[in-house]
User: Fold Metabolite-proton symporter from Curtobacterium luteum.
Amino acid sequence: MSAAPAPSTTTPTPAGNPRSRVVIASLVGTSIEFYDFYVYATAAVLVFPTLFFPDADPTASQLSSFVTFALAFFARPVGSIIFGHFGDRIGRKATLVASLLVMGTATFLIGCLPTFDSIGVWAPVLLAVMRFAQGIGLGGEWSGAALLATENAPKGKRGVFGSLPQLGAPIGFLLANGLFIAINAAMPAGADGSVNPDFQAWGWRIPFLLSAVLVVVGLYVRFRLVESTVFRGVQESGSVAKVPLARVFRTSWRPLIVGTFGMVATYVLFYFMTTFTLSYGTTASSGVPKIGLGYPRGEFLTLLMIGVVFFGILTPVAGFLADRFGRRSTLLWTTLGIALFGLTFQFWFAASTGPVTVVTFLVVGLSLMGLTFGPMGALLPELFPTNVRYTGSAVAYNVASILGASLAPTVALALWKADGNIFLVGLYLTIAAVVTLVALLFVKETKHADFGDAEAERVLGLAADASVGDGHVRSSGSLAP
Assistant:
């Protein structure tokens, strides 16, 4: 007879997250993130200049509105440091819930703000505060969603899974602007293009207030998550970084630099194709202060949404290509295409401004956006070790937003000639693409970086004691010397 086995005294390891839950939880958060941002971007063009920044000069009002739009980008690195710290210290799940709450609350409160006519200068001040808070929440959202997807991805499919949070951008755009189109249909603009009085008075608030519904859905899904096995491995090995930000700058500064500049062209293209084109497309075709295409807002948003569909389709396609051919190769060829596309901006509209020309321009630009945005969900996390992956990828992603996106609409407005010529706007995009190309040349392929095996990470972390000195894993991403 054999003795009965002794009962185990170890604590059972929590089961992993089902793939369907990973997909939904990573996608819903970024969809809300981009919904919030598109709602603000659209309002910043359509109503905020007159409601919060009344000025005799319409260009000055528009520029003031764009300044608050840019403010969130400067808040995002602060958010990435705060949420990155807790994401690398206590875990991904709790941090993802907190970032969503901050972001969603700020967006909802923007819809409740009084305007300049009601409280004077305090109106733009409160708008700026809420916008900054929105940026804080956004600073922790993307990286957590990307890590949720990639750290739970099947072997060889991190590119595809990493592209899933990126789908939040086109989904958020379609939700936000589809709602604006519906509101615009119910509250149509005047024959001279003037904003409907009801929309000006209260209609613009609806998209901000409805964000609360999306936040509730997102919280429900995320509360049901369990911590990734990869991060649990770091906790069990005792290699959690005490101060993740300091650790990133000390041991992963090169991935931080190339990751940041590798995202610049993506951000510039993103906000040129969404925010600037909306302003250019709906400005009067003749008049003061600048000449644009002169489309009604609802019609141009419809054309823009057609382009965004291609953005959505090509984002997971880019993830597949990144798994098949590598992140670096996919991004190098795409960035080269972005550089060439920037040189053609004015030529698209030199002979015609008809809807076929406009929608073709939007489809090409937003297709390139999908191809460059998709692989980033895998590339940035792969550049950093697990114990600082949240902080490293979040800081790179959000500092890139300052360099690429925060100033893009304002710079584009300044480079947009009074006669309607936008060659210099496209040239700015080309220069950004060249910067990104140089950064990508310093990145070696990361698709084989092994951070999906918790046991392997644990061994690497313990083996690093002698070489690093404090028991922390070195970056699994590789850089050219």
Notes: Residues 1-14, 452-481 have pLDDT under 50 and may be disordered.
